[in-house]
Structures are given as structure tokens and as C-alpha cells.
Amino acid sequence: MANTDSSSPTIFNVRKTPTFFIIIALLCIASYFLAAYHQGAPLLTTATTASLSLSASCNHHTAQSSRTFPRCSANFSEYTPCEDPQRSLGYKRHRMIYRERHCPEEPLKCRVPAPHGYRNPFPWPASRDRAWFANVPHRELTVEKAVQNWIRFEGERFVFPGGGTTFPNGADAYIEDIGKLINLRDGSIRTALDTGCGVASWGAYLLSRNIQTLSIAPRDTHEAQVQFALERGVPALIAILASKRLPFPSRAFDMSHCSRCLIPWAEYDGVFLNEVDRVLRPGGYWILSGPPINWKKYWKGWQRTEKDLNQEQTKIEEVAKSLCWNKLVEKDDIAIWQKPKNHLHCKLAQNRSFCTAQNDPDKAWYTDMQTCLSRLPEVSNKEETSGGVVDDWPKRLKSTPPRIFRGTIEGVTEETFSKNYELWKKRVSYYKTVNKLLGTGRYRNILDMNAYLGGFAAALIEDPVWVMNVVPVQAKVDTLGSIYERGLIGIYHDWCEAMSTYPRTYDLIHADSVFSLYSNRCELEDILLEMDRIVRPEGCVIIRDDVDMLVRVKNIVNGLEWDSIIVDHEDGNLKREKLLFAVKKYWTAPPPPSDNKN
Fold first, then answer.
1. At what angle do helices 547-557 and 524-534 cross, to 10 degrees?
2. In the 8-state DSSP scheme, what is residue 591?
3. How far apart are the two ends of the chain, measured CA to CA in Å?
4. 114-339 belongs to which CATH class?
């Protein structure tokens, strides 16, 4: 349960300088300059209701809320607006289209509650192996997947033993088997995609090998699998291979994985495997385990005929060959294919062609999947890697991404990248003087709503966190590919819509110039309500923007039950850009009626 001790150490700390008092005096005379400096005693405590106290005189940043947003009813506690299980029933079953994003015409205007009894998640790395039942009150998988060692229910908590459908002996042992076939420890593999992830044990155990995996699964009959992953502190997203491209750039992942993920890889002209090809880096690996691999041993247990399984594997082999992939190995229950480093000598089968130049492989927001093959950047010889070679991890993080040094991102140079890296180290250092819990392990899941080059995430790399880097589809330039080339992960998104994730996904949300970007595109209150939905109780929000915009934002925030404060830019109070730090108060849905009975 949340701590209510008012003597707890403070979260926020604000500096006092002589310049501050001069500015306050000028503000009181002029009543004009909105960049007033917030001063006072320690501002937020780690108490559950983290009270905020502002004591600056003539405080021009204090905005009165014109509207208070009500709390939603308890049945909205797991509301995912664009993957609503009821509304999805009105869409086509063909190719699982009904499991894709289908957003409501009108956004919800109330605040989604945490379930009664909600508790702060276990800190990482303990969270990898356990979660509170009250936070994700679903026992279905403990029964359905009991023999597969996915998850167990013990007292008030879930325990994740690390098993999976095709690795009942544990994800760690399974990963070691993969590591005997390809090198998982030399830093050449950093980013991975897990399709049909279960509770994301594969991704969870790869983290100890410095491999960051983005695990995806639909919101389907396996209730709350992505929610369990996020509760464990593992990167995950609600997503499905159906009719639209995944929200990733081309050439993003070093490795993709499917362990009995039930995706019909050979069907629909191999369109799903073609999508995997699009998001795999040149030379990247695709790993398949479960049906039909090793069907001669398991066909009876899978309750399928030998002929059927043999045909399925043959078709998969044919699709992979049509993509110019090379099958590296099939050993026991694991098969691995490798995408070519370039397409110099790729001869396509009659049933497949290269996409035209007009078909941008990085366009991935509500974009139909293609059966044409995304052509890799041109090379001069067969040994050259299309698009450029990325350094091994961890050097990769600081090295200039190939998309930048090759000049493919308009207006972004090597100098731009270098300055951005240093800038965000400075900014994050300043953030930690304001929010003293940042970097302590209190926050695990972090969202950067406008990531640009991933500098914010890079500056946090030594902390026990992971960052979902979002590049808005409305951004001036598409930088998400370069973020992946740094060894970081992220998605495309439009913040006029809800994110494909469960409520209470993130411990901290960072929003740099997001509200200026969207000020004429959609209602700012809808973006803030979405932030309220996906940030955890007692989670932190950091918003950077022009002072005029921040005053507008704070006016809305006052109706969200957030404790907030506007502080100066790290370079001082003469900068128009300011920062709003906020903490979402702890509150939950009321207890169900049965809990009130004597």
C-alpha cells in the first residue's frame, strides 16, 4: 500500500537565487511576464497523496482549473480505448483485423481508476519474477498455462517462473540454447522483437544479456498478457500482425522471435513474414520454435497430422527463400533464418517483386502491409551492409547512427547528434535535482512522448529503467530509425489518439514540446487524460514547453488530481521554455460491494 508518512523525503527540490527575488518583484509590478519562478519549502513528498505547496508571492504560474475531470467507474480500470474488446466485435474477423487498432470517435472524458487495492509494483529486478495480484486481477493464465510454467498465483502475488509454451524448463535455458546457435553476448544483437509474447519471459531474460526486446501481443483471449509484461517492468505493446504494418521503422530490429505464437506465417502470400523482413536489420535473425519445427517428434502432442505439419514447414521455407533469407540452422526445437546484408544478388521468385520507390518502408502508421519486398539501400559490393553498419553495444549508443552520417534525415547532421547527446545529459542531470527519485530505482517503465534522437533515453542508460521512445507521426522529421540504430526502442504514434497500452503502464512520462506540436491538432485535455490513463498512481510527469503553453497545460492539470509545479529551464529563468513536474495522486476504484459486507 502507499506510504502516507508526511515526514518522507521530498521528491521535488527547487533552487532559490537572488535573481528569483528580483524577477518576482518585477512580475508583481508588470503583471506581464509569465515565467515566474516557483519557490518554497520542499514541494512534493513520497506520500501517497504527495501534497504540493507553493509559497511564491505574486505567483503568475498558478492557474485555476476551469474543469474538474470526474473519476470513471470501476469497470474502466483496464480500459484500452483503441483495443476495446466489445467495440472490436464490430470489425472483420478476416486476418484478425478486429484485433487491430479501432479508436472511438469521442475520447473518454473521465479518469481511469486503478483497481481497488492497487500497490506500487515491485522494483526491478524483483519485478521480473513477481507482481501484485491486485494490480492485474486475472488468474486465467495460471490455469490455462499451468503446465507450461508461465505464471503461478501465490498468496497476494503472481510469480513468473520464466517458463513458456515451448520452453517449460525456463526462458533462461531456452535462450542459452539459442546462444549456442548465434552469438547473443558480443553486442552485435541489441534490439529484438517478440511476436505473440505471452507474459514476455523471453524478453525479460534477454535483458541480462544487454538485449532490449519489445514484446507484442494483441488484447485477446490470453487475458492481460501484455499487461503482465509491463507490470514485470518489461517493454511491451498491444499489437498484432493483421492488415496494417507494425508501428516500427524499417531496419529496426537485430532479431525477431516467435515461440508458438500462432501466426500463420505461410498464409496470405507470406505477408506476415514479409512484415518481419521490413523491420529486421540487414543481417538480422528470425527465430522460430514450436509448430511446425521438429514436427516429427511432436506431431501427436500437437494433435495435427504429419502431412499437415510438413506442408506448413515447407511453405514457410518457401516464403523465407522468396525473401532471399538464408536458413542458418534447425536444431531440435529451434530454427533460425538470416536476412541478407543487402539485395545485390537477391533474385526474387515469380510470385514476389520489390516495392516501388513510392512505397516508403518507414511509413508505418495505419499503413497496409505489403507482399512486395522492401528494397534495401543500394550497395557497391556484396560484402557491404545496406544502410551502413552499426557498432556493437554499448559503443552503438554514442556512435552517430548510419541514417545520420549518411545524410538521410533532413536537417540532422553528425554535429546535431553530438550536441543533442550532450544536451540531454545536462537536462537529465537537472531533472534529477528537481525530482530526487529519478535514477534511484523508483521508476522503471518510462515513456518519452517526443523522443527526437533518443537523447533523453540515452542519458538514462545507466539507470535501472527502459524507455519507450515515441516519434509522433506529425514530427518534422522521422528519426525513429536512428533511435533503433542507437540500440534503443520505440514506436510511431499520433497523440490525438490513445496509445496501444494498458492503463498504468508507465512510472514516468516525459513530454518535450508535445503540447506545442499538437496545440492546433486536437484537444490538449484529451492528451493529458491519456497521460493520466497510462501513468501509474504516484507516477511522475515531466513536461517541457513554452511558458504560455505550460500555463494552459497547468490549468487542465489542476483538474486531474495531480500535484504539479512549474520550474525554470536548466539554463535559468530568462528562458521562455519552462518545465512542469507533476505527480499523479494515489487513488483507486472503491471496493466492490461484496467487500463491504460484514
1. 60
2. P
3. 22
4. alpha beta
d(C-alpha 422, C-alpha 420), whole Å: 5
Indicate the burial class of 147 (C-beta count within 10 angstroms; 0-12, 13-18, 19 or more).
Answer: exposed
CA-to-CA distance for 189 and 257, rounded, in angstroms? 13
Query: Strands, E, within 190-235: which ranges?
Result: 191-195, 212-217
> Domain residue spans in the chain?
114-339, 395-584
User: How many whole angstroms separate alpha carbon 297 and alpha carbon 290?
Assistant: 11
Residue 42 has pLDDT above 60, yes or no: no
Scanning 301-413, the segments in alpha helix (DSSP H) are 306-322, 395-398, 402-405
Quote the Cα angle for 563-569-571, to 5°.
155
Grid cell for residue 514: 508535445
* Residues facing residue 583 across a β-bridge: 540, 563
Q: Taking a C-beta distance cutoff of 8 angstroms, is the pair 353, 372 a contact? A: yes
What residues pair up with 212 in beta bridges, in sequence order? Answer: 191
In 10 A of CB 142, how many CB atoms? 16
What is the model's pLDDT at position 14?
54
pLDDT of the residue at 248 = 98
Instruction: Give the CATH number of domain 395-584.
Output: 3.40.50.150
H or E element that contains 205: helix 201-206
Q: Are 346 and 321 in contact (CB under 8 A)?
A: no
Q: What is the Cα–Cα distance from 204 to 436, expressed in whole angstroms?
A: 27
Strands (E), 2-137: 130-132
Fold match flag (114-339 vs 395-584): yes
The amino acid present at 535, given as its one-letter code, is V
pLDDT tens-digit map of 508-565: 999 999 999 999 999 999 999 999 999 999 999 999 999 999 999 999 999 999 999 9
| 208-245 residue pLDDT tens | 999 999 999 999 655 678 999 999 999 999 999 999 99
